[in-house]
Amino acid sequence: MTKSFGSHTVLEGISFDVPRGATSAIMGPSGTGKSVLLKNIIGLLRPDRGEIWVDGEETVRMREKDLYRIRRKFGVLFQDGALFGSMNIYDNIAFPLREHTRRSEGEIRRITLEKAAMVGLLDHLKKFPGEVSGGMKKRAGFARALVMEPELIFFDEPDSGLDPVRVSYLDELVKKIQEETGATFIIITHNIPSVMRVADHVGVLYRSGLVRFASKDEMLLDDNPIIRQFLAGRANGPIGMDELATEESDVERDLVARSVRRAEERKAQRELERDRDVLQV
Amino acid sequence: MAMVVPGISKVGNVVREIGSMAAVGIESVRRIFSRPWPVAEFLDQCWFIAKVTTVPVILISIPFGMVISLQVGALIRQLGADAHLGSALVLAVVREQAPIATALLIAGAGGSAMCADIGSRKIRDELAAMEVMSINPIQRVVMPRVVAATLIAVLLDAVVSAAGLAGGWFFAVQVLGVSSSSFFASFNELSQLPDLWMALVKAGVFGFIAGVVACYKGLSCKGGPKGVGDAVNQAVVITFILLFFVNFVLTAVYFNFVPQKV
C-alpha cells in the first residue's frame, strides 16, 4: 500500500503479512510513518493505493458500515491511552461493553474487574484519567482494548513516556496476555529491548519503505546496514538525523528496487494465500 | 501549464469548509434515526446548554425590552398613542430579538464549550479511539449535541420572549405610566400567532446551525491546544455571521408566504 499527504509520500509500496496468533513489531526511526501505517490498517486513514486484508476481507474499498463491523475484531491501545477524560477508569474500561452488548450491569462489572485485574488496576478504578500516571493510563487503555475479546490488538508506542522498568513490566504484561488470549498483537515502537522481549516477528520501516519484515531471529542475522544500524542503535550508518533529507544513497536505491520487486512477489503470493489461514495486512 | 489565479486556493478552502460543515449537519440529522440512541448524552447536553445559557439570556433580554419601551415610548407618546406600546414591543422582542439573542447565547456560551470539548477529545485521540471501538462519533457525540442545541434553542426562545416582554412591561407601566390592561390588549395589533411559530422555528434553525458549526469546528481542529482555541474562536465567529444571514433569508421567506397584519 501507498499513502501520501499532499505531495509528501509517507508510505510507499509497503507490503507484508502479519502471522496470526503471534506478536509482530513494526519498528523504524521517528517520522518514518509508523503511526500512519497503523492508522491505515485500522481504517482511520485510507491508503491512496493498495489493499489491506483483514481476516479474508479487503478493508480499503470497504463501506463505512462494514469497516465498523470489522473493527469489532480490533483492540487499539493509543499512544497515551486515549481514555475518555469525562469518565473514570472503570467506566472507560466498561465503555465498549455498554455500547456494543446488551449485558447486564453485573456481567459488565464482572468482565471489567477481570480485565482490570489482568492489568493490575483494581485499586484505581474510581480515579479519572487526569489523576493517574502515564503508565496507568496505558494499562487502562490496554484493559479497554481487551474488553471485547479482540482477535487483533494494536499498540501505538506502548513504551513512550515510560521509564525502562515500567516498560519491561508492560512488556511482560503484553507477553502474558498474548499467551493467554492467543490474539494477534501488532506493536508500533522504536524501543529495541522491548521488541527483543515480546516480538516474534519484526518489520523495519525506513524512508517510507519497508526494509524487511521477518521473524526476529532472521532480522538479527540480517546484514542489511539499515537494519544493523537500527537494531544496534548506532549513530554511524545510512540512517541520518533528518528523515526527509533528499540525497539518495546506494542503499536507498537498492531499497526502492527491492521493495518494488517484493511488492510484485507478494502480489502473486497473496493470491495463493488468500484462502489459507493467514492474516494478511 | 495550469493558469494560477491568485487567491483561488482560498476560495477552494472556503467552499470545502462549507461543504464539510453541511456534511456534518446532514450526517447528524441522518443519525437521529439510527440506533442505539445516546439518550444519556442527549439529556446531559440539554442540561448543560440550558444551564449555561438561561440566566445570561434573561439578563440580556430584560434590558432589551426596557430599551425598546424607552425608545418607542418617547416617540409614541408624542403621537398620543402610548396605549399601543405593547404591540411595538411584541414586534421587536418576539419576532426578532428573541431568536437572535437565543442563538447568540447558544453559540457563544453553549457552542464554544461544545467546540472546545469536542476539539480536546479530538486532539487526545478520544474520537479515533471511539471509531476503532466501532462507535460512530457523529452518532455518539455530535448528534446528541446538535439535537440538544436545537431543542434548547426553541425552549429558550420562549423564555427570552417572556423576559423581554416583562422588562418592557415593567418600564412602560412604572416609568411611562401606560396602563397594564391597554399594554396587554395591544399585543396582537401588529402581530399574529404565526409570528410566534416563526420565531420558534427560527430559534430552532439557529440552534441547529450553532450546534453543527461548533461540532464541525471541534471535529476538524488539529495542532494541539492552540488548534482548539482557534477552532472555538472560528466557530463563534462563523456562527454569528451565518445567524444574521439566515435570519434575513428566513424572514424574507416568511413575509412572502404569510400575509402580514400591517
Q: Can you walk through the features of this model?
A:
The complex is a heterodimer of chains A (281) and B (262). Chain A has 281 residues and is of the alpha/beta class. Chain A contains ten helices and ten strands. In chain A, the strands form three sheets. A six-stranded mixed β-sheet of chain A has the order 6-7-8-3-9-10, with helices on both faces. In chain A, β4 (53-54) and β5 form a beta hairpin. The longest helix of chain A is centred in the last third of the chain and has 24 residues, at 250-273. The radius of gyration of chain A is 19 Å and the shape is globular. Chain A starts with a strand and ends in an 8-residue tail after the last helix. Chain B has eight helices and no strands. Chain B has helices spanning 8-31, 39-78, 85-123, 126-132, 137-176, 180-185, 193-219, 224-257. Chain B has 262 residues and is mainly α. Chain A binds chain B through residues 39, 42-44, 68-69, 71-72, 74, 76, 78-80, 82-85, 95-96, 99-100, 141, 148, and chain B through 36, 120-121, 124-126, 128-129, 131-136, 140.
Show the helix and strand layout.
The complex is a heterodimer of chains A (281) and B (262).
Chain A: E1 3-5, E2 8-11, E3 23-27, H1 34-41, E4 53-54, E5 57-58, H2 64-70, E6 74-77, H3 89-100, H4 105-118, H5 134-146, E7 152-156, H6 164-181, E8 184-188, H7 192-198, E9 201-206, E10 209-215, H8 216-221, H9 225-232, H10 250-273
Parallel strand pairs in A: 3-8, 3-9, 6-7, 7-8
Antiparallel strand pairs in A: 1-2, 4-5, 9-10
Helix pairs in contact in A: 3-4, 3-5, 4-5
Chain B: H1 8-31, H2 39-78, H3 85-123, H4 126-132, H5 137-176, H6 180-185, H7 193-219, H8 224-257
Helix content of chain A: 40-55%
**In the CATH hierarchy, what is the class of the largest domain in chain A?**
Alpha Beta
**What Rg of chain B is obtained from the alpha carbons, in whole angstroms?**
21 Å
Q: What's the SSE pattern of chain B?
A: HHHHHHHH
Q: Can you write the helix and strand succession of chain A as a string?
A: EEEHEEHEHHHEHEHEEHHH
**Quaternary class:** heterodimer
Number of helical elements of chain A: 10
Largest beta-sheet characterization of chain A: 6 strands, mixed
Given helix and strand content, the structural type of chain A is alpha/beta
Number of helices of chain B: 8
| Main beta sheet of chain B | none
Task: List the domain count of chain A as a whole number.
Answer: 2
Strand content of chain B: under 5%
State the total count of DSSP E strands of chain A: 10
Spans of chain B of 5+ residues with little confidence (pLDDT < 50)? none
Question: Strand share of the residues of chain A?
Answer: 15-25%
Order of strands, widest sheet of chain A: 6-7-8-3-9-10
Estimate the global geometry of chain A from the Cα principal axes.
globular
Query: How much helix is in the residues of chain B?
Result: over 70%
- Which structural class is indicated by helix and strand composition of chain B? mainly alpha
